[in-house]
Amino acid sequence: MADVKSVEQADVAGKRTLVRVDFNVPIKDGVVTDDTRIRAALPTIQYLVDAGARVILMSHRGRPSGEGFEEAYTLAPAAERLSELLGAPVAFASDTVGEDAQAKAAALEDGQVLLLENLRFDKREKKNDPDFCRALAALGEVYVNDAFGTAHRAHASTAGVAELLPAYAGYLMLNEVGTLTGMLEDPKRPFLAILGGSKVSDKIKVIDALIEKCDVLVIGGGMCFTFLLAQGKQVGTSLKEEDWVERAAETLARAEAAGCRILLPTDVVVADAFAEDARTQTVSVDAIPADMMGLDIGPETATVYAEAIAQAKTVFWNGPMGVFEMKAFEAGTKAVAEAVAANAEADTIIGGGDSVAAVNKFGLADQMTFISTGGGASMELVQGEALPGVEALK
Fold this sequence. Notes:
Layout lengths: L15 E5 L6 E2 L2 E2 L3 H15 L3 E5 L17 H11 L3 E3 L6 H9 L5 E3 L14 H8 L4 E4 L10 H5 L6 E3 L1 H15 L5 E5 L4 H14 L2 E4 L4 H7 L14 H14 L2 E3 L3 E5 L8 E5 L8 E5 L1 H12 L3 E5 L12 H12 L4 E4 L3 H8 L8 E2 L3 H8 L5 H4 L3
Parallel strand pairs: 1-4, 1-7, 4-6, 5-6, 7-8, 9-10, 9-15, 10-11, 15-16, 16-17
Antiparallel strand pairs: 2-3, 12-13, 12-14
């Protein structure tokens, strides 16, 4: 990211430093249940604390209405968890740009940390409202964006404020963008990408982009059935997008022309209902019963996918192979996760979202080279789109 200035180039000593972080974390009964995203921001926060900055953190959490405070979406437990991780007190403002935020920001001393209440309690955040941008910017003297997970959104805290203050990228932002662009521009080969998830329509731009760049493209999840339809197979009651079948067929042809090998399932686990206790069987993709739906790749497919993964030198994974949240349909995703973890020779990059949940579920996160904190942002970057949160730092 040569055209973006690093936090290390910022003059922060004694200055109120406004930092956009991604603390969109799960909270239950007032306790953070997964602090991955808070931990991901620690290097930047700790650097600023050590440099004598007066650190003002801002984040959204969930999807509140934007009409003011909602208990279900408060960031107060995130402040408590951050305080534990830093081993130092973290002040918490009960509003975002109001009197409490202004008073607590003004009272900060060098090396102290303040977290503002949920940005999205104010509907002006998502609208990138100029007045809200100015109110946020007035709290600080320097701006640092370390929230890659929201870099694909042109909101007040990700884009607007960067126009009003000297703007820099935090360590997480630099690492995310650097890793993903490096993978696309100069991957070690063979470069294998694994795409899952439910819909072809959601992933088509990513598929298009990866066909041009990778050697092997492995497809699983609900979207594989639209591709199987394109190959003339019957898929029963499986998830399918009829109006994307022709596009899927074109994609298969284009991949062949580009020299990108596409792997599709040869067997699947089918069920008579979308339920944990459904009646299941494993069948060939040429024999999917008309009254059953595919909910996972089968064992034969999992073996073929694992063998391909073992030969790769760069692996990018976004999207599960099946409904891995249910025990009956987790085997395919687990097999792929284990194969990626086992390939110690490869650069293994997990592209956010459900793939991260999967590697965490199976206890394999520490065996991956890089885990992205931003599903949507990483997908947009891979498909070649400019990220507003990154562009604003240039």
